[in-house]
Amino acid sequence: AISMAGSRFAYVRNFELPDPLLPETYMVLRIDGHAFHRLSADHDFAKPNDERALQLMDHAARDVMNEFKDIVLAFGESDEYSFLFRKSTALYNRREAKILSTITSLFTSSYVFNWPKYLPNTPLKYCPSFDGRIILYPSPTIVRDYFSWRQADTHINNLYNTVFWALVLQGGQTTTEAHATLRSTVSSTKHEILFSQYGINYNDLPARYRKGSVLVRTEVNGEADANATDAQSLESPSPIPPTATEVSQGSKKKKERIRTIVELLHCDIIGDDFWNARQNLLAD
Ligand code: ATP
Ligand code: ATP
Ligand code: MG
Ligand code: MG
Ligand code: MG
Ligand code: MG
């Protein structure tokens, strides 16, 4: 009787429509913190850049990349992170909602889970959340333009915010006055205000603030050795131990296996050098 009832109800499953992402296109997944202007104020983030909060974002992004090996590159700034999948990924049969919800929720839970490591004296007052979207790009050129767009945005925002907070915190202006001072100023004027009034040479600011964070998956040479987890932990606050499968494969056959590490960089990704040195990112 129960199975008959089960089959009588099972038709509702047909209302769950397939949501496949177009094959052979580049998938970029971007998450962005919900109302982080308020969250950063409520938790006393340093202005314009709280380095601890940026490191926490990097940590959550690294956790995502350690779990999902088809992500080859990620770029982070402020409260957002973009993840690039290899073109031919078959993750969850390319089901959009499955991929988007799983990764957005993993990022969010890692952000919350690791918060106390980065802001030990600032208890969370409420639950942070992130929105997420997946964008498909049909060509390598557009993928590069996407990442250039995000890194250019990092620069524009950081220059503006650095002058803005210098005017407020050192210049004694109100936030309204500082906005007015900066209204319709060009880039060179902002550099000039920073240098002449506050002695700040913009180019001397930390690269993390000027360039954002680049997490890139890099293949490393060497046989699959169950003990060789050291390279994996490079720059990583939480090295991922080999899985049971990896350990048994390693000990049984020592079979050829491509090992990768995830490197954290704060470099230019608008020019050609970064991509020329890593042709694999946009291949396959
Ligand atoms: P939305 O929900 O629409 O995304 P939002 O308030 O999150 O709204 P964003 O445009 O995403 O707006 O901007 C994020 C804001 O979070 C920044 O403007 C900045 O005020 C703050 N913020 C994020 N990370 C940091 C950080 N590391 N240090 C200081 N402030 C930060
Ligand atoms: P998927 O990632 O595809 O959802 P899954 O392993 O989560 O895979 P589900 O079909 O969602 O598979 O089933 C969830 C499983 O989690 C259950 O079959 C059960 O084994 C376990 N589970 C969930 N909640 C409980 C609970 N409260 N007590 C015991 N087991 C639970
Ligand atoms: Mg937003
Ligand atoms: Mg936001
Ligand atoms: Mg944002
Ligand atoms: Mg489940």
UniProtKB/TrEMBL annotation:
> Which reaction is the catalytic activity of this chain?
a 5'-end ribonucleotide-tRNA(His) + GTP + ATP + H2O = a 5'-end phospho-guanosine-ribonucleotide-tRNA(His) + AMP + 2 diphosphate + H(+)
Q: Quick one: which residues bind Mg(2+) 2?
A: D32, D79
Enzyme category, top tier: transferase
Positions bound to Mg(2+) 1: D32, G33, D79
What InterPro entries is this protein classified in?
Thg1_C_dom (IPR025845), tRNAHis_GuaTrfase_cat (IPR024956), tRNAHis_GuaTrfase_Thg1 (IPR007537), tRNAHis_GuaTrfase_Thg1_sf (IPR038469)
Q: Which family does it belong to?
A: Belongs to the tRNA(His) guanylyltransferase family.
Protein name per the record = tRNA(His) guanylyltransferase
